[in-house]
Write the structure tokens for this entry.
Amino acid sequence: MAFLELTKIRKQFGQVAAVEDFNLQVERGEFVSFLGPSGCGKTTTLRMIAGFEIPTEGQVSVDGADITNQAPNQRNVGMVFQSYALFPNMTVAQNISFGLRIRKESESAIKERVTEMLALIHLDQRGSSYPYQLSGGQQQRVALARALAIRPQVLLLDEPLSALDAKIRISLRSEIRAIQKELGITAIYVTHDQEEALSISDRIVVMSHGHMEQVGTPFEIYNFPKTAFVANFVGTLNTVEAIMVDPEKGVLKMDGIQFESASRVDGLKKGDKISIAIRPERLSFASEQRKANVVDAKIENITFLGSVVRIQVTVGKTKFNMDTFNNPFLELPKIGDVLEVTCSREAVLILDRQN
Amino acid sequence: MAQATQNQTRVVSPQRPSVFRNLTAWIGVLPFLIFVFLFLFWPASSLIIGSFETPSGSFTLKNITDLFTPSILDAYVLSIQISIVTAVGGGIFGFMLAYAAIQGGLPRWIRTALTTFSGVASNFAGVPLAFAFIATLGHTGFLTAFFADVMGVKIYDLGFNLYNFWGLALTYMYFQFPLMVLIMAPALDGLRKEWREASENLGASSFQYWRYVALPILMPSLLGSTILLFGNAFGAYATAYALTRTLNIVTVLIGAQISGNVLYNPNLGYALAFGMIVVMAISIGLYTWLQRQTARWLR
Amino acid sequence: MKKKINLWAWFWIVLGALYFLVPLYGTFDFSLHEKRGVLSFFAYQNVLMDPRFRESFTYSVLMALATIVVGLLLIVPTAYWVHLRLPQARPLIEFITLMPFVVPAIVLVFGLIRIYSGPPLAFTNSEQLTNLLLMCGYVVVAMPYTYRSVDTGLRAIDVRTLTEAAQSLGAGWFTILFRVIFPNIRAALLSGAFLTFAIVIGEFTIASLLNRPAFGPYLVYMGNNRAYEPAALAIISFALTWAAIGLIQLLSHGRSDQGQLGGMH
């Protein structure tokens, strides 16, 4: 049995179902992200684990114990809030030790634990500072230490980095992941930033409109998206309309041009309108290596993005983005040229049938 | 010429302005400063100076020492008493009201109703308020009659008297509660929901949340507001005058001085006024300092 | 746990409502009893027919208007200037706006009389000059609230950027003030005006001690001589205050609870 289990969770607010049919099993020590746009239900689900919302239906259990209806201050989960929520009238040390004081631990045990936590977040010398004297990133680290000090069974993080600068976000997220790994604590992380989710999670749950779209490792989510939503939300890609020609062999036509795809979707018949997706980095020039699909492409625009060069091409009547690694010694084609562009069968993803 | 327009369009100069530039900028606030000097600072300071003079104009400390004569001291004591009572009473009740409306999980309209009404009630003070209470709790007032006719209780026989200390205190509360509500509302707004959730998440009960988080955070605001309420009551004149001229509080005493009714010694009157300024200055000072403290935490 | 808080909250609200509403109801009821045994608006009729009512009310309304105009003329440019060109003056200005609390009305009028009743500034010898003195007193008393209204309004509209934008489009100072700034702080200006109005109408202390025929002294005169009319007047006052504050609430859309702080006590 998994360590954290959410079974058939549903949360209704009046007429609106904020979360529907949510099922997840999380192993001990796993780092799972809930990823999705605003309003998709990810925070609501997290709050149900914390106890700030009670599910309309369904069950939440931790380590075998059913905590669905337990009051939030009876659960042993630690929560890190987006706005840090540090108590402004207490010092850093007092904030961190708050949960331990409530649990009536001994002074010496508290002192030891606080020192331990301060070392963990690399703020050893700031124990007697007040929150308003710290930067955003530092405050968030204190919030993390405060949640971890009580040795929770599960760590919950509600978009903890959204309020911080881009650079801090990147360094802090690796720190959070490192701490989580070191302590071996089970963690649920809510975010709308797909790069964040991809970089630090063991598994990702992509959500939309209260439903789970897909659960999988970052690799699976990115390379094998199951729905158009997931494909669009995670990473950039080209999504175009096409018509199914041979569902069994994966042959389809886009703008009259034939493509072969390795993905199979059930229930498709010849003549069905479908959405297909191709990641920009999976397209390359045929002059380098010929793969299964080869088409003519006219160069429309070339944008230099640093490590990547984005080339906009037209295939048939449709525009595609093509990404290649920047190579200073490679001659790039000129606008207006017509070249052969290729991609493998696996690169062509068939998404759901278009309505 | 481009340079000239540049200087004109520059609204604030980035480098340290020359003294001359600074001086011309101050002209903009001169009318205001002059007005305030003429009609506030000059009158006030003349009172203070007058309290150190004899009627003939020579320096003396007698007026100040005369403040400590029993009748005047009594007035100060009474003023202070009524101010403390209505400040603490108004503070507690006002805080409870504000908390109930803002954080008590009640429908939104209650809060709007409370703040609107508080705005009205805190402005309703003075003569009309006194009239309202006379009409309600005076000898022939609505409630007095109600208690007598419906419940058979004659409150005046039981010792209640609108025209004594406690009657005045009850009347003062009508503008003290709302003032407390209006001042505490922003502070209560500043009590973020996440603090409560974080404390629950860490295992604290409601009581522990209040004791360790909410009350400490609100304390400077609470103290400051109560002190402001104290000052507010101390300086009140119209309500007391309209209700009962006989109550010997400092403001009524000063009023009598001005009207020339009692002990025709204007300099003593000035000393009274000076004493009042001192009390008010201390309360405003404490209030400002405490509010700053709160602002720092509730950023 | 949520339920328990609710009960407690309702308790206080109901208590508060009782304390606030019962006197109002009682006063209203009392005011209807002038004619023995019958509920009537007789007291209100007497009041509204009373020439002294009309005179004193008119006087106070005119005073209020004058106070509003002078007050805003003094304060708006000052506040604007502080925002734009003289931020270092802000602490001084804010200190000054606290002073009317340190010098309450009863003390202020005392000082005004001391300075302006003898030579060379014998204002009190002339009726018109005494009116002027009263108005200046009102401006001082209303000043903290007016300043705060205007300051809040200016803060909300990023004065500096607007001014710079207008300047870059070629506007001069007059245009900027009257066609860019004023329209955008209209709500704040009106709030300040209504608050001043409420304060002046209800003011008693300064008016009575300067012996001016304002509404406040009229109320006390009625209180000394009549029984039911004062109650009617109290209700009328309350209705006026409610209207003024209600309008302020409407203008500020319920934002800034402090918009209504005021009052003559």
Observations:
- Confidence is low (pLDDT under 50) at residues 256-260 of chain C.
- The interface with chain A takes residues 1 of chain C (CB under 8 Å).
- DSSP finds twelve helices and no strands in chain C.
- The two ends of chain C are 42 Å apart (CA to CA).
